[in-house]
From TrEMBL:
GO terms for molecular function: sulfur carrier activity; sulfurtransferase activity. Its main location: cytoplasm. It holds the Pfam family DsrE. One of its GO terms (cellular component) is sulfurtransferase complex. The keyword Lipid metabolism does not apply. It comes from Acinetobacter nematophilus. Gene3D superfamilies: DsrEFH-like (3.40.1260.10). It is found in: Cytoplasm. The lineage of its organism: Bacteria, Pseudomonadati, Pseudomonadota, Gammaproteobacteria, Moraxellales. Belongs to the DsrE/TusD family. This is Sulfurtransferase complex subunit TusD. Keywords: Cytoplasm, Transferase.
């Protein structure tokens, strides 16, 4: 059974951490799953977030999973997150997409929804 984790909760939300926990459990059990970051969930891909040393960094925890981390490009740009290519295209001075995350269109979410057995939104 394949699972799609649709993450819309901001990194400061406990729901974002629950999404990570489920992803870690699915990976540990070798179960098929995909993730998609949308709405405020895209903020996890902001490389300019400062995290105190005594707190876990959600972005780093997602990177440790070594899976594909697609992020909605429109939601990201609306929240000030961009990669180098979109920074050039939209004449933004710098880029700040965290390593391991990919900006993608909503078509990818539609494909993921179409091909999954269950969808869980956080």
């Amino acid at each position: 059974m394949s699972t799609l984790l649709l993450i819309t909760a901001a990194p400061s939300s406990i729901h974002a951490w629950h999404a990570l926990g489920l992803a870690q459990a699915l990976k540990a059990k070798d179960q098929e799953f995909r993730v998609f970051f949308y709405q405020d969930g895209v903020q996890v891909a902001n490389n300019l977030q400062w995290i105190p040393d005594d707190q876990r960094n959600l972005s780093v925890e997602w990177q440790k999973l070594a899976i594909r981390l697609p992020v909605c490009v429109s939601a990201a740009l609306a929240r000030g997150i961009t990669d180098q290519e979109n920074a050039k295209r939209h004449q933004i001075q710098t880029h700040n997409l965290a390593k391991g995350f990919d900006l993608v269109g909503l078509g990818e979410l539609a494909d993921a929804v179409q091909s999954t057995d269950r969808l869980i939104q956080f």
